[in-house]
Amino acid sequence: MTIKNLSKHLLTLTAFALLLSACLQPGTAVIDSEPRPIQILEASPSPTEEPLPTPTPTKAPEALVSDGEMALFVGDYDTAYDIFQQSLNQNPDTNTAAQAHFGIGQALYNKEDFGSALDHLRQTAVGDNTILAARANYLMGQIYTELQRYDEALITYQTYLDLRPDVIDSIIHERRGDIYNTLGDYARAIESYENAFLSDSENTMSPLVTKIAIAYENNGNVDTALSLYKDINNNSDNDYTKAEMDLRIGRIYLDREMPDEAYTYFQDAVNSFPYTYDAYTALVSLVEAGVEVNEYQRGLVNYYTQNYPLAIDAFDRYLASENEANADAALYFKALATRANGVQTGVPQNEAAIAIWQQLILDYPASSYYVDTWEDIEYTQWAYMGENEAAAQTSLTYVAQRPETSEAPNFLFLAGRSYERAGLLDQAAQTWMRVASEYPNSDETFRSTYFAGIARVRMGDWAGAQPLFARALVLTSEPAEVAAAHLWIGKCQEAQGDISAALDSWKIAQTSDPFGHYSIRAEDLLIDQAPFTSPNSFDLDPDLTPYRMEAESWLRETFALPGDINLESPGLLAADPRFQRGLEFWALGNYRAAKDEFESMRREYEIDPAQTFRLIPALVEIGLYRSALVAATNLLKSAGLEGAEALQAPEFFSRIRFGAYYMEWLLPISESENIYPLLLLSIIRQESTFEGFIDSGAGARGLMQIMPATGEQLAAELAWPEDYTVEDLYRPYVSMRFGANYLKKQRNLFEGDLFAMLAAYNGGPGNTLIWKELAGSDDPDLFLETVRIEETRNYIRLINEIHAVYRWLYGDNTSLFD
């Protein structure tokens, strides 16, 4: 019997199969940028007072409610509470009072004062406004769930459904299902989960289908569960889901005393998805049962779960067998496991790892791991062993043995970098110069020649550096590289006393790449201005109204839109169920779910300029600044405007993409930490594009991408916020305070050097101290080129470029960009 055959449920065999198949089809992934996390700096500043925005007491109660909602979004719960309370103190009408009570309930809920939150939410729940009453019941359901008062949670969630049907039914049913599951009432859990599935118009809920299947298994309907597990396994495109299904199916067959079938699924998890934890669990079951496994795959599973000794043993057994199919891969991963085991145990095994890789090079010269092996040897030598000259020699040996390969120019560059790390600048320069001479068609020619010039500058050989920058100039047509070469030619000329020629070179650099870092720096040099100089005055007015009509006219002309088409925002988009669900999730404080709804709309209308234009102001009004930025950028791209050319579009789009967001909180924080606003805005834009609930792959969180350990340290140093948890990093207010405070520390550590401050924020203060020492001067341009982490160099350059746009948009100073 399967889910489709049970008459007591809503789904027929065909309908459910179709829905299940649809829900598990591959979808479009949204890839977020992953800003580099900041590192911990040991410091002990004294606690500082919170720079709280002060609400205007003369505002009408309705306006105060709007301000309070913004404070909730920013994560300033104390201010939100105060604002809502001010609204109540003015004896507002019943609807506004209900809104204020709901807002206070949300603020108290976020502060985990559940009892007081319930008091205010109950006042909203008994009011005449059914929408607010429904939302109050939703939040009460969350509180009751956290308090494990499950019966009350079920009632309040059902009340939400009764008062506000057909909006976010799916998530409400799912939460009721989760509660029933916790209570062990699996039949009702199944019913709730199925209702959730049927309520999801997008049918993209494979995790929900898994919940349905597990509930069936827990309820004793194992045949139905098995059928669903197999359906999920066959249709999912997620490797981790497929490994989980292999494990669940295998366990069912084991329970049925059908070991052969069980082991087939366990083997599939081990052989197909060795990097998943469920593959490890499956491997343990196979080994304990005495079932033979592929020792290479066994080694991989143990490697990925960091069981390095077990991985090494498995690879050895594989290599000792007569199976040669993956012998090269087994050697490669054995070496990785050996090196990692040394780190894990504190007893370095780097030489042993290198010896294994060298065996791979000798025995398997045609291996797909061949180039990776050389790179890993080189990396191990300098990064783990500190043997920079040996690393350089490894790279040069590869070039000597395989000079014809496409990787040879990169190995020459790596050799030059290793010599530079060793302080052998002349050898570095000579090695980098070889790239253009021996591989003139390589993509590495400009970079290598340019760094050869930088090495000569660091040696004080300005006369020798200048022709290298001139040579680099003829190796590229990229505007940014042309500007960089002219900038350094000018600096060489200045150092040699030819000021007139230097000025001429900087003028060329200034116009080579408008809004590019090196053109910006050239302008700074021409007017004797320090990097990140603030304009004389600036007006960070976020109001987009004065700029909208120009943008609308441009849109009509550029895309030949009919004259009678209505471009008001949101227009008919407001009737889209996703728009309505998004607004509901936003009002309930579920910002991630809201974003998913609006992002679905943004992606659908990406090729429709009119609909995208309607959506952009709505996204800004809601607070989804990142989505608005992406929508505006893509709209300009569809008009053929990218990079600096996009700034030629109507100012409306630039003010979306480089917005004055979070101003009521950012300005006081900026003043408190003495980080001027345009620079702080530029950093936030680079770190998160103004999204407070974003994560990076490295674990950084929130608006200014703070690592959890750093957040914990800053919370202790500032003695704020009260009862800090890592989740507070998703509060934009907390993130801005932490980020600005950390920036201030770095600025003070590096005596006001803003390039070094940014390098420390991105690459760590320890690295930055080394780079400052290597640069050997206060020249910010030389410091930048001495930074060894490419990501950090790009980070500094990008923020300088973003800052130039902010200065141009909001400042009063004149520049080459006017």
Helix and strand layout, with pairings?
Elements: H1 13-23, H2 61-74, H3 77-89, H4 94-110, H5 114-125, H6 130-146, H7 150-163, H8 169-183, H9 186-199, H10 206-218, H11 222-235, H12 239-255, H13 259-272, H14 277-288, H15 295-304, H16 308-320, H17 327-345, H18 350-363, H19 370-384, H20 388-401, H21 408-421, H22 425-438, H23 445-458, H24 462-474, H25 479-495, H26 499-512, H27 517-526, H28 545-558, H29 577-587, H30 591-604, H31 609-622, H32 625-638, H33 651-657, H34 663-673, H35 677-688, H36 708-718, H37 732-749, H38 754-763, H39 765-775, H40 780-786, H41 790-810
Helix pairs in contact: 2-3, 2-4, 3-4, 4-5, 4-6, 5-6, 6-7, 7-8, 8-9, 9-10, 10-11, 11-12, 12-13, 12-14, 13-14, 14-15, 15-16, 15-17, 16-17, 17-18, 18-19, 19-20, 20-21, 21-22, 22-23, 23-24, 24-25, 25-26, 25-27, 26-27, 29-30, 31-32, 34-37, 35-41, 37-38, 38-39, 38-41, 39-40
Task: Give a verbal description of the structure.
α2 runs parallel beside α4 (94-110) and α9 packs antiparallel against α10 (206-218). This protein has 818 residues and is mainly alpha-helical. The model is unreliable at 1-50 (pLDDT under 50). Helices cover 68% and strands 0% of the residues.
